[in-house]
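Section 3.1: Structural characterization of target chains.
Under the original work plan, the team committed to producing a structural model for every single-chain target entering the pipeline before any wet-lab resources were allocated. The record below documents one such target. The sequence was received from the expression subgroup and is listed exactly as submitted; it comprises 149 residues.
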Amino acid sequence: MDGKNLNVALMVLSCVLLALMVFTPLGAEADGSTNRILWGPITGQPSEVAQLALALWGSAVLARRVQGVPGVTHWLFPLVAPGVLVVLSLVLLGGDLGTSLIILVIVGGLLLTAGVAARRLLLTAGVAVSVVVLLMWTTPYRMMRVSAW
């Protein structure tokens, strides 16, 4: 299996594991979020696989598509939509805002390294921060964590 197929396989595996965590009884809840899979004596966090998969797959996608990343379509499709949005949605469905932030930083780093215009990155980051603040304020256990911090 070459690198391209391995990156795609890792992305698919991470999405399947995240879906199993969110939509099946294998998902284990702790402290308000479902971010682990319990399968007998085996436990794990699919989001860790997803972070690695996004970094590898995202860099491969951008390396194939980028020559200075001239337009939005060169990085928006397929990196951000649907790749990142699927993983991010599944992580957020599990209620794990912290991991979602890490994923956003990974994607931002990929886009910055690929040469996406700072104006576009700042606009995207502004939207992301607004959504994070909204999610934080609308969920009591998240606000408790922020207050405690």
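Residues 26 and 40 are 9 Å apart (CA to CA).
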